[in-house]
Specification:
134 residues; alpha+beta
Length: 134
């Protein structure tokens, strides 16, 4: 999805958030349960933007109906390089209602899990603040 990709690449997280449906479901590469809702998804994406270094998208794939997209990326977390993919589904209004992220190799996923885990309290507080402000 071009708008999402351009917003992420520009570091414009407000624009990224504007592309999320209120009922978006984020599925993490390192946590079993999905995270439902725009507030928590936006907070997670903001934290990830601080964790990933040398982030770049390498490829974009689009499904025949234009509602399914895959954005292949590379990044670094500390000294671990990783490759990943953002799987995006758009609702009938063109907003992101599903965002699933997968990463490899295992050592990169573990580094990501540790870095994000260290920020989870901050993520939860930001999400709560966004939920109560809505």
């Amino acid at each position: 999805m071009r708008a999402f990709r351009e917003a992420v690449e520009a570091g414009d997280l407000d624009a990224v958030e504007a592309l999320l449906a209120e009922d978006v479901v984020f599925t993490s590469p390192v946590v079993f349960k999905p995270y439902p809702g725009k507030a928590i998804t936006a907070a997670i994406l903001r934290a990830v933007s601080r964790v990933f270094e040398d982030f770049r998208y390498d490829r974009e794939l689009t499904g025949a109906d234009g509602r399914d997209h895959a954005l292949v990326f590379t990044a670094r977390v500390g000294d671990r390089e990783l490759t990943g993919c953002d799987f995006i589904h758009l609702d009938e209004n063109g907003l992101i209602d599903q965002l699933t992220v997968m990463v490899r190799p295992l050592s990169g996923a573990q580094a990501l899990a540790a870095a994000m885990g260290a920020r989870f309290e901050e993520i939860a507080k930001e999400a709560e603040g966004r939920t109560t402000a809505s």
